Amino acid sequence: MGCPHLGFLLMVCCFLHALLASASHGNLPIMAFDEGYTQLFGDDHLVVHKDGKTVHLSLDERTGSGFVSQDLYLHGYFSASIKLPADYTAGVVVAFYMSNGDMFEKQHDEIDFEFLGNIRGKDWRIQTNIYGNGSTSVGREERYYLWFDPSEDFHQYSILWTDSRIIFYVDNIPIREFKRTESLGGDFPAKPMTLYATIWDGSDWATNGGKYRVNYKYAPYITEFSDLVLHGCAVDPIEHLAKCDNVQSSQAIPTGVTPVQRIKMENFRKKQMTYSYCYDRIRYKVPPPECVINPQEAERLRVFDPVTFGKGRRHHGKRHHRSRASQADATSI
Predict the structure, then answer these.
(1) What interhelical angle do 259-272 and 295-304 show, nearest 10?
(2) Is 224 in the active site?
(3) Which of 35, 67, 272, 302 could form a Cys-Cys staple with 144, CB 3.0–4.6 A?
(4) φ/ψ bin of 42: left (φ > 0), alpha (ψ from -120 to 50), beta (otherwise)
């Protein structure tokens, strides 16, 4: 599909972007499921709560489920409060992401939140990833633990996508900022995308590279989505014309990382990040050109895993064991 009006769309969205102010999503309208989404797969594995705004997705006997936004978007703020399955969740993948792979099979863009389950007693992990223009040969993954148990209650996960940056948030704390740079060329997501939410069996890779698989005696695995926010430039799939949300409500959308947020982001990354492609010495002898190396992050990861992030041998010991994050970590972030 061609995009002859992308220049116009960029101009409109840049105008919208210039008028936004930094804040939480609290003033943005929560969208009812039927107003903004449609079921993608899973039949009766997707259940909409009677309030019309909370959705249950389940995985049982290798049958997952998912939903997708009804509209395409070029830039915006996309958010959901998510509660993940509890207990043994190895191999389970819950995803909240944007993609246009159905339209641009070989040149697709993607912005991912992926939640990777674990064996009993081990924490869920978050993985973020970004693809632009079909650049799937360059994995841009980062992985983190959280400072809370995401299966005990709802927590907010958000994606801000503009023409110059992508920011991932957890409970309004930025955890990753990915800037558009000249070195990226066409690898920055720049085509309209739809929003997806899914739960599925990722046994082959999700937990310790496939060592631990989904055990269906613990099924059904149920994840809940609520407080769904779709706010940005909706794009007509045929005419390719943008229809941006009104500026008044858009004032609740963040435009970047404030100084206070940057401190919180640095604290989060220092304590919770366990993997970043920029520091992976096995995959990339030289970091990809868009990477900005932070010496503190590099040293922490090198100590955590000297094989992947350094030149040493892997040491098995207490420093590689991670128990559940303490309340003190939550307070300091």
Answers:
(1) 20
(2) no
(3) 272
(4) left
Of these residues, 61, 105, 114, 182, which one is catalytic?
Answer: 114
Contact 233, 75 (CB under 8 A): yes
Residue from 110, 142, 290, 297 carrying the catalytic annotation: 110
Active site residue 114: yes
Q: What is the pLDDT along the chain (333 residues), one digit of tens a residue?
A: 444 454 544 444 443 443 333 445 567 889 999 999 999 999 999 999 999 999 999 999 889 999 999 999 999 999 999 999 999 999 999 999 999 999 998 899 999 999 999 999 999 999 999 999 998 888 899 999 999 999 999 999 999 999 999 999 999 999 999 999 999 988 999 999 999 999 999 999 999 999 999 999 999 999 999 999 999 889 987 776 777 765 544 555 677 899 999 999 999 999 999 999 999 999 999 999 999 999 999 999 999 999 999 975 544 443 334 444 444 444 456
Dump the DSSP string for 39-74.
EEE-GGGEEE-TTSS-EEEEEBTTB-EEEEESSEEE
User: What is d(CA 227, CA 157) in angstroms, rounded to the nearest whole number?
Assistant: 10
Contact, 244 vs 73, CB < 8 A?
no
Q: Do residues 243 and 236 make contact, with C-beta atoms less than 8 angstroms apart?
A: yes
What proportions of the chain, in percent to the nearest 5, are helix, strand and coil? 20, 35, 45
Q: What is the CA radius of gyration of the chain?
A: 20
Question: Considering only CA atoms, which of 329, 178, 179, 180 is closest in space to residue 264?
Answer: 329
* Lookup result for tokens 């070989």: 106
